[in-house]
Amino acid sequence: MSLSPRERVLATFAHQVPDRVPIWCGLSAEFEAKARRELGVDDEGLRLRLHDDFRRIRAPYRLPEVPLPPGATCRTVFGIDRHGMGYGQPLSHPLATAASLADIHRYPWPSPDCVDVSGLRRDAKRWHGRYAILGGDWSPFWHDAIDLLGMETLCLHMLAAEELVDAVLQHLVDFYAESSRRIFEEAGDLIDIFFLGNDLGSQTGPLIGPALFERFLGPHLERLIDLGHRYGLKVQMHCCGGFAPLLPALVAAGLDAVHAIQPCCRGMDLADLKARFGRELVFNGGIDSHHVLIAGTPESVAGDTRAVLDIMMPGGGYVAGASHDTILEETPLANVLAMVDTIRDHGRYR
Fold first, then answer.
1. If DSSP codes are grouped into helix, strand and coil, which group holds residue 143?
2. What is the pLDDT, as a whole number, of residue 88?
């Protein structure tokens, strides 16, 4: 029996075997524009062509309009001016010189009143009951802490000024927890999955070891996961890189799913991950964006996609998609179509 996209995803998150593996298609704005142009479709038409089983709703921040300084291309909700492609890199680290808790508390932390939830129900009702709906604040508190303190200062403070790190993280997660609470109060009955993101890995391993993760980040992540669970939602975290040593802590925190598994990173062997954690975590991703989707051909993409499915789909608990959170513009559209069509056809359970 054929399931609806929502039924398919919810069965997968319950570690049941659906009719086929759900398909995830995160797209960069540049790729999305290219694909719409080449296929001659609108946004929803593109999602339908890609067999995407998910839809996402967002609550924007409504902040005072303040001119960006020279060189800045965007500003975060915590006042960090950034420059470069995409989200870019921070132009400064305003709390790098903070020497006391008073310095931390004096920072102009934003109010959750800037979170605009007014359009969420309207947006969610477009797809409710048919697709798995993602919602909640992205909540990248690890990245924000790096922006505010600088990576080197943050790491040094974890060893020599723990109270400053704790204070920064508390302010950050207080904001995100209240932001998502307001989102869930407004439209939690229409949302299926709380989707948040913190990149904890590099190509060669985690950016932070298990002990420091459990000391500083784990309790805050668990707080956000518990919030989603209180509203009856599954919780999926986007996390790039080789973060395998942190997986036991993520499981202990109650996380339901990890997104954008990158098999080319150290420690991220798909068969090993499936064997060790496949009964506790839903894995999302695994089809190499760099070496397969960008550099391959439709024929090689189809072959690699089948190989990933053969490893990851047995027993359920797998969502198939690219190993990067958003498919980049330089990715050939034909390769992406080959990936999703192969998942649709080869990813069927018998």
1. helix
2. 87
